[in-house]
Amino acid sequence: MRVLDWKVRGFRLVDLVALGLLIVLMLGVYLAKTLAGRERGEIARVEKQISQERQRVRLLEAEVAHLEAPARIERLSVDYLGMAPPVAAREIAPQALAEHAVEEPPKRKETTP
After folding, report:
1. How many CA atoms lie within 13 A of 29 on its CB side?
2. 44: left (phi over 0), alpha (psi -120 to 50) or beta
3. Cα(25)–Cα(105) distance, rounded to whole angstroms?
4. How far is 33 from 53, CA to CA, in rounded Å?
5. Which residue, 1, 76, 85, 91, has most beta carbons within 10 Å?
6. How far apart are CA 59 and CA 51, in angstroms?
7. How many CB atoms lie within 10 A of CB 106?
8. pLDDT digit string, tens, across residues 8-43
9. How far apart are CA 1 and CA 101, in angstroms?
10. Residues 56, 61, 64, 69: what is their CA dihedral angle, to the nearest 10 degrees?
11. What is the 3-state secondary structure of the chain?
12. What's the half-sphere exposure (Cβ side, CA atoms, 13 Å) at 93?
C-alpha cells in the first residue's frame, strides 16, 4: 500500500493534508489582509499628521516673517529703545575711518578674591 492511498476515517491522507494546507493558507491570507488594513490606517494617520505639521510650519514661517519685518523692528527700536536712524552729519567716508579710529580701552585689572 502506498502512502498516497492511506485512509483516515474514510478520507485519503493526501486529501486531509491538502485540506489542512488550504485552511492554513486561508488563515494566512486573512491575517495578511487584516495587517495590511491596519497598516493602511496607520499610514493615513501619519499622512494627516504630516499635513498638520506642514500647515503649522507655514504658520510659524509667516509669524517669523512678521516678527522680522524691518519696519516693525524700526518702530520697536524707536518706541522702546529710543533709537533713531543716523543723521547724515555723523556719517564719514571710508577713507576717513583711520583718522577717527578710537584707541583700545585700557584692560581691566583682574582681581582675585
Report:
1. 6
2. alpha
3. 87
4. 30
5. 76
6. 12
7. 6
8. 777 788 888 899 999 999 999 999 999 999 999 999
9. 113
10. -140
11. CCHHHCEECCEEHHHHHHHHHHHHHHHHHHHHHHHHHHHHHHHHHHHHHHHHHHHHHHHHHHHHHHHCCHHHHHHHHHHHHCCCCCCHHHCCCHHHCCCCCCCCCCCCCCCCC
12. 2
The cell numbers describing 13, all together, are: 491522507
> For 109, how many CA atoms within 13 A lie in the half-sphere containing its CB?
3
Residue type, 18: A
Domain boundaries, the chain: 3-83
* β pairing state of 7-8 and 11-12: antiparallel
Instruction: Please name the residue that has the C-alpha cell 583718522.
Output: 99
Summarised one tens digit per residue, pLDDT across range 54-78 is 999 999 999 999 999 999 999 999 9
